[in-house]
Each structure stands twice: as C-alpha cells, then as structure tokens.
Design brief:
Order of helices and strands: EEHH
Number of strands: 2
Strand content: 5-15%
Largest sheet: 2 strands, antiparallel
Radius of gyration: 44 Å
Number of helices: 2
Structural class: mainly alpha
Length: about 120
C-alpha cells in the first residue's frame, strides 16, 4: 500500500506508520491532511449546534414575549385614546348640527311669521 501519516494532536507533528506498501504520498496531500486534521477539533458538533440553537430560541421567545406585552399595552392605550377622541368628536358634531337646526328652524319660523303676517 504505502506509508500512512498520522497526526498526533498532542505532539503536533505527523508520524509515519508503515502500512507495508512502498512510496511516499505527495507532499501537497500530506499538507492538506495535516490542515484538515488540525482543523477538525475546532469544528462544532451537532450537539454544540443544537445547544446554541436551543439557547437562541429561548432568547428569541423571551424577547418576542416582551415585545408582544409592550405592543398590547401600547395598542390598549391607543384604543382608549381613540374612543375618547371619537366621543369628543361626536359631541362636537351633535352640538354643531343642533346649532344649525336651531338657527335654520328660527329663520323658518321667522319667515313663516313674516309671510303669515304680511303676506
């Protein structure tokens, strides 16, 4: 087969294990293998990712819950303010219409009296 190079992470250098075959692997292949094997311990596992995702979900749910409560509070305040303003506007309109009818009604009564008296 050939010579297999193993990397001992504690020793930091590759060691040669003879597999019974002849020939050396290309230097580029050996360098690539060394880079890959030194990088592997630093990569996250599925369990690491699951823990991180679970933590992020919990944080996100907490923040969304806080925002939801704040939004309900704000909407409730806006709703009561809106109803108060609508009621005030309604009474302004009612008083305006009443004043209009009194004015027009008075003018009609005066016109009817004038026509009946002088007409």
């Amino acid at each position: 087969m050939g010579t297999i190079h193993q990397i001992d992470p504690l020793a930091g250098a590759p060691r040669v294990v003879d597999s019974g075959g002849g020939g050396e692997p290309p230097v580029e292949l050996l360098e690539r293998l060394i880079r890959i094997e030194t990088t592997l311990p630093a990569l996250a596992t599925k369990d690491d990712l699951a823990r991180e995702i679970g933590g992020l979900r919990a944080d996100l749910n907490k923040e969304i819950g806080g925002l939801r409560a704040e939004l309900y509070k704000e909407v409730g305040g806006l709703r009561s303010e809106f109803h108060k303003e609508i009621a005030a506007q309604t009474w302004r309109f009612v008083s305006w219409v009443t004043g209009l009818f009194v004015t027009i009604g008075g003018a009609l009564v005066a016109a009817t009296y004038f026509i009946a008296k002088h007409g």
